[in-house]
Amino acid sequence: MRVQDIIAVKRDGGVLEEEQIRYFIAGYTDGSIPDYQAAALAMAIMIRGMEPEELSVWTDAMLHSGSVVDTSSIPGIKVDKHSTGGVGDKISICLAPAVAACGVPVPMISGRGLGHTGGTLDKLESIPGFSVDQPVERFCELVLEHGLALIGQTEDLAPADRKLYALRDVTATVPSVPLISSSIMSKKLAEGMDALVLDVKVGAGAFMKTEAQARELAETLVDIGSRAGKQVTALLTRMDEPLGEAVGNANEIVEAVDVLQGRGPEDVTELTYALGAEMLLLGGKAGSAEEAREILHEAISSGRALETLQGLVAAQGGDAEALVDHGRLPRAAHSLHVGAPAAGVVHAIDAAEVGIAGMLLGAGRRVATDRVDHAVGVTVRRHVGDEVREGEPLVTLSYNQEKGLTEAVGRILGAYVIGSGEVEQGPLVIDVVRGEPR
Ligand code: URA
Question: Of 82, 215, 230, 382, which is the active-site residue?
Fold first, then answer.
């Protein structure tokens, strides 16, 4: 088989055969197929797209490029959640223990932040001592003992995706529905879950800027899962303004714990319940969304959800006390309010710009090798629909170094649109796409 013939099929808008796909993914993973041929094929896929069956085989080949976690020793329906990435998205940190406290095992393998989006692993690492690097055997033990595990991707989990994602990042081939969905689903299927709830973000702070694009991604992700025999539900959720008040790392841990103490911001709390209800439905612990919400509410108000998180944090080497004694978390040395340039009503906040402001302070990474400062970040003080007087703080920046501060202030001022009159806001959860295993 010649790789250039495989590339030519896709270049000309054809459909790749299973043998061609498996040959290509195996060769790219073992290094016998070079990056330049993979880049050419990725660009052809980006432009030409993939048929559903073709994409299902492509995902399966990526999933089997490494090992697949065997979670059969863990009883129950194991349900995970994945977000396509947003700003201030700390949901996994409150959601996973809340769902685990309701008796649904949550084997969660998360990612790091890049560009304007944050990553769950970086946030968790702001808890002193917490280790996201756990071997697969320990991953299963943690789920058995604590009902959940929050770890990073191991070396041999979908290695084809690791290589391909790095290549896509530098060849302008990231924003492709088949490439994003196969990338996400190959990793999720490799971690051994039985069912999955996806939070597909839509809007200024998301990969998918329009509802139509997000719907296409959600339907594609659900279809891949269904073809792999898994129960997958996708929620389309709004990501125009940042989620909650905290954008950063340690400050997002505090906000996630606030949700578990029943005093989190409304949007973060609502999204936790919306996603949690779907996870309980898939996990067979509730017969309706209403019942699921009641079960979740009990787990949170009784303190069991927070205890579950504390138990897991201690088991992964972290300082569980820091979850409730926030003085033990990293704290920035300086803060600066960014005032409103004019009085009015906040009409819009570009979440991506707020994410970039946080990144400039050190809360995120420009490139994958950058180091994150867990103490710094942004506190959003005025949300869409809020009135503001001239000079009143829109956000507070917490920082350790002056570097990047001036540009961060500029990004915040550019992110806020202040006008007059009332603002119409759409619902946080736009729609739900449900699949059926085939
Ligand atoms: N997240 C992933 O895991 N892969 C992509 O391609 C995009 C987002």
Answer: 82
